[in-house]
């Protein structure tokens, strides 16, 4: 059921899987940061992205093991990196005050 939703979202948005995972990480980060009082410096926002990225990849690993018989670890690490990269950069820039104002 989840993989069907994933395929439908890819067809509707015309995005690649990597682009969709990058946008998913950014949307989740901004949503949690908006709800938390520290905004972009929020530890909750970055940890929410980490937990969701790892959780989704564990779910995909289960699917790989049942369907293929092995886990594609390299591809899983690439997906986790795609989800985490931009939110982590934004969080580090906000945390260490790259934007002086």
Outline the fold blueprint.
Elements: H1 2-13, H2 17-35, H3 43-68, H4 73-95
Helix pairs in contact: 2-3, 2-4, 3-4
| Topology as a string of helices (H) and strands (E) | HHHH
Q: Radius of gyration over alpha carbons? A: 15 Å
Number of helices: 4
Gap between N and C termini: 47 Å
The beta-strand count equals 0
Low-confidence regions: none
What do you see in this structure?
It is a single chain. Helices cover 79% and strands 0% of the residues. The protein has helices at 2-13, 17-35, 43-68, 73-95. Helix 2 packs parallel to helix 4 (73-95). The longest helix is centred in the middle third of the chain and has 26 residues, at 43-68.
Quick rundown:
This protein has helices at 2-13, 17-35, 43-68, 73-95. With 101 residues, the protein is mainly alpha-helical. The radius of gyration is 15 Å and the shape is elongated.
Question: Features of this protein?
Answer:
about 100 residues, mainly alpha, about 0% strand, elongated
């Amino acid at each position: 059921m989840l993989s069907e939703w994933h395929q439908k979202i890819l067809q509707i948005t015309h995005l690649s899987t990597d682009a969709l995972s990058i946008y998913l990480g950014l949307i989740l980060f901004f949503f949690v940061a908006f709800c938390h009082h520290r905004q972009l410096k929020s530890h909750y926002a970055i940890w929410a992205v980490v937990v969701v990225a790892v959780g989704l990849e564990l779910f995909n690993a289960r699917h790989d093991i049942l369907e293929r018989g092995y886990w594609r670890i390299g591809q899983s690490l690439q997906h986790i990196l795609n989800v985490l990269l931009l939110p982590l950069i934004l969080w580090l820039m906000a945390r260490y005050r790259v934007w002086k104002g």
